[in-house]
Write a structure and sequence with these properties.
single chain; alpha+beta; 5 strands; about 35% helix; binds FE2/S2 (inorganic) cluster
C-alpha cells in the first residue's frame, strides 16, 4: 500500500509517497539521493547503511521507512556545516582510516553516537559499540586510531 509520509532528515522535513514495503535505506538513497547511505549486506549485519535515529545508530536496510516517521534522522550529509568536515570525518582522513571508504559513513555515525552517549568511552567500549560495523578492507587498526583521535578532538569541540 502507498502512503504519504513526512520524514525529518538532516533537520529538513521531507514529504513523499512511499510503499509500505520500502526500506528507509531505499527512501534515503534512491528517493532523497543521500549517497552516504550505502547498501552492502541488506540484512542488518554490516553497518554500511547506518543512519542515526534520534541519535542512535540503526541499520536503514532493516527498517521500513514508514517506521521512521516522527524521529530525527541524520545521515553523514547532515553532520558537517557544509563548509568543512565534521571533526570525526577529519580524524578518519588524518589517520588514513579509509581504503575504499564504503564503510566510512557508518563508522563515523556510530562513533558520533557513542561519543555523545559516553565521551569517555574506553577502547573496549568502542570495540563493542562498533561490532556491528564491518570493514571489508579490514582497516580496523587505522579505524581504531581514528576513533581515538576523534575522541581527543571531541574534548575540544562540541559534537
Ligand atoms: S546493508 Fe544494512 S546492515 Fe548491511
Ligand atoms: S575501507 Fe573499504 S570497506 Fe572499509
Amino acid at each position: 500500500m502507498k502512503r504519504e509520509i513526512t520524514l525529518k532528515v538532516n533537520r529538513l522535513d521531507e514529504t513523499l509517497t512511499v510503499d509500505d514495503a520500502d526500506t528507509l535505506l531505499e527512501v534515503l538513497r534512491d528517493r532523497l539521493k543521500l549517497w552516504s547511505v550505502r547498501e552492502s549486506c541488506g540484512v542488518g549485519a554490516c553497518g554500511s547503511c547506518t543512519v542515526l535515529m534520534d541519535g542512535r545508530p540503526v541499520s536503514s536496510c532493516f527498517l521500513l521507512a514508514v517506521r521512521a516517521v516522527g524521529y530525527e534522522l541524520t545521515t553523514l550529509e547532515g553532520i558537517g556545516d557544509g563548509q568543512r568536515l565534521h571533526f570525526i570525518q577529519e580524524a578518519f582522513v588524518e589517520q588514513r582510516a579509509l581504503q575504499c571508504a564504503y564503510c566510512t559513513p557508518g563508522f563515523v555515525l556510530s562513533v558520533k553516537a557513542l561519543l555523545e552517549e559516553n565521551p569517555d568511552a574506553s577502547d573496549e567500549a568502542f570495540r563493542e559499540y562498533l561490532a556491528g560495523n564491518l570493514c571489508r578492507c579490514a582497516g580496523y587498526a587505522d579505524i581504531l586510531n581514528a576513533v581515538h583521535a576523534a575522541q581527543e578532538k571531541s574534548k575540544a569541540v562540541m559534537i
